[in-house]
Amino acid sequence: MRHFVEELETLKTSLLEMSALVEVAIQRSVIAVTQKDRSAAEEVFLNEAKINAKEIQIDDAAVSLLALQQPMAADLRLIVAVLKINTDLERMGDLAANTAQRAMSLMEVPVIKPMIDIPHIAGLVQSMVRKALDAFVQRDPVLARSVLASDDAVDSLRTASYHELVSFMEQDPQNIQQALDLLAVTRNLERIADHSTNIAEDVLFLVKGIDVRHHAETHS
Amino acid sequence: MRHFVEELETLKTSLLEMSALVEVAIQRSVIAVTQKDRSAAEEVFLNEAKINAKEIQIDDAAVSLLALQQPMAADLRLIVAVLKINTDLERMGDLAANTAQRAMSLMEVPVIKPMIDIPHIAGLVQSMVRKALDAFVQRDPVLARSVLASDDAVDSLRTASYHELVSFMEQDPQNIQQALDLLAVTRNLERIADHSTNIAEDVLFLVKGIDVRHHAETHS
User: Fold this and answer.
1) Closest by Cα among B140, B120, B133, B117 to B196
2) pLDDT at A210
3) What is the spatial distance between Cα A219 and Cα A124, in angstroms, rounded to a whole number?
4) What Cα–Cα distance (Å) separates residue B146 from each residue in B78, B127, B154, B158, B212?
5) What pLDDT digit, counting tens, does each position of A135-184 carry?
6) Distance (Å, rounded) from C-alpha B54 to C-alpha B45?
7) What global pTM score does this model have?
8) Interface test with A, best of B48, B58, B63, B161 (most A CBs within 10 A)
9) Hey, what's the torsion of the CAs at B54, B56, B57, B60, to 10 degrees?
10) Dmax of chain A from CA atoms?
11) Dihedral sign for Cα atoms in the order B204, B210, B214, B216
12) A30-79 pLDDT, tens per residue?
């Protein structure tokens, strides 16, 4: 068996490969919606199988490290954080796939409503994802806390967009399906933001042993 | 420090207390919707703080057990399963709270549409939750597999209900808010069912070391 430190590095590298796949999936799903890009949506569907395989591989590697070694407190916290972040990343991949499905549905109808809000919300959410993962790599609690702070902005934007889409439905029943798809897209983005805050909380636990969960809970 | 076996029993007991809180939250949230029962909704909101506190307590206990002991393969799988099931239960509690919020919104308007489907879907989902947790307690792979099988039925029921609610919106714009609330309730129930299948998969991993994830993935 290889040295523990080396195994732990391999585990971290795998998690970063996982996060790269998920970031691409989110980015492509947003392009599929905003640019009605069918090939971007298909890329997300193909990516999903890779993400699922990677999740299992990382979980198995983390459990093996726990089983075969006797990790000390800090390493143990790292392995537990990897297990948790891995779960969040896989869910984010699922949400990107759902967004890509909604994008396919949106491609079937002419755009009635310009999607001003969605690129805006998507940009903010993608920057949260990036910061949460950077905070993990750099073990940076300040960056992790900035992710927690952004979550409220995403919630506010989504609430505004929700009301706008409901009034858009009320104007004309023909808009309903399109509005429901757009509502699902913004909900998916908001849930991706929630998973980013979970990751940021895991980083704070990892760096300082602080449990910051459930201090500013939101519901989607 | 107490004996490892004793600590492990305490951990399992805490998880069952957590699952009891979550099952009550789901049940009360369904009653809040179907019977327009405000006190049931309020009970769910109060319950949520307890569920969140319990999640942290269980996580900490599981990590301590990993840190202070050197668990063998089977015990290690149990502790990892507890960590994962704990996360799923907390999310189920969040979904119940969201359903209770939707119930409050639904109470403000007269019932236009009878909620024939919701008690039906809710009954099926609650039975999945129960079976998944029983499968964990009894380490019963047959029961765990029956949970996986039920998930397709919930998806089918929800799809039918989705189309019905969309046509209900299209009939009259005044129905839109109510239909959106009901859509959210059925989506929450479907996501609770998904978390039950996660738990059932963890039971199969625990009992047999089999990883059954991503064999019949669905998207909400």
Assistant:
1) B133
2) 59
3) 18
4) 21, 11, 13, 19, 13
5) 999 999 999 999 999 999 999 999 999 999 999 899 988 899 999 999 99
6) 15
7) 0.89
8) B63
9) 160
10) 66
11) negative
12) 999 999 999 999 999 999 999 999 999 999 999 989 887 777 778 888 99
- ipTM associated with this complex: 0.84
Q: How many residues does chain B have?
A: 220
Give the CA count within 13 Å in the CB-facing half-sphere of B203: 26
Nearest to A73 among B67, B101, B166 (CB): B67
Cβ–Cβ gap A173/B169 under 8 Å: yes
Decide which of 3.40.50.150, 3.10.690.10, 3.30.450.20, 1.20.58.220 is the CATH code for A4-208.
Answer: 1.20.58.220
The pair of structure tokens assigned to B64 is 């301590």
Pairwise CA distance, residues B91 & A144, whole Å: 22
Q: Which residue in the set A59, A67, A220 is minimally distant from B98, CB to CB?
A: A220
Domain locations along chain B: 4-208
Residues 107-126 of A with CB under 8 A from B: none
